[in-house]
Amino acid sequence: MAELARTPGPLRQMFQLIDMAPEPHDSVVAEALATWHERRGTELTPQARDLRGDANAAVRAGSFLASALAGRTDFALSQVGEEAARCLGLSPAEHRLSAATQLRIAARLRRLFTLVLDYGEPVLGRFGEVHGHAGPCEMEVLAAPIILEGGDTGVFCALSSGGGH
C-alpha cells in the first residue's frame, strides 16, 4: 500500500501551508511558477540563466536565486529583487540569507530551500508574518529547483507579502 509523504513536524509548525503540488493564490508567485514551468520544458530542472531574464518586472522584483553553502545552514543569494530584499530585510550589500534582518522569514526559507534541494520539485509555503509597523500579513513563497552556472542545483525563490491577489 502506498502512503502519502508526511510533512516533517517542524515544517508544520512554521507554515500554515506546505504544498508540493503548488497552486499559488498570489498573482506574482503564480506568474513565477508559470515561468519556471515554461523554462523547465521537458527538462527536470530549468537553467538559472533562462529564468529571471524572461520573467516580468513584478516577478524579478519579488524573487532571487539561492545556492547552498557548506552544510546547507546558509545560502548565498544572487539577483535579489527589490521587493524580495525588502521582505527579507536585506541591504543591497548583503548576499547571504543569514544577513536578513527578518529572522523568522529567513529560518522558514532555509527549511523550504533544503526541502526543495532534497526532493527536486517546487514547493509552495504560506505563513503569517509581521513587517515592522505594517501589521500582520500573509506571505506566500515559491521555492523551486534550478541549475546554477557551475552545474550545481540551486533554488529559485519568489515571494509576496499579500499584495498581488
TrEMBL record:
This is GAF domain-containing protein.
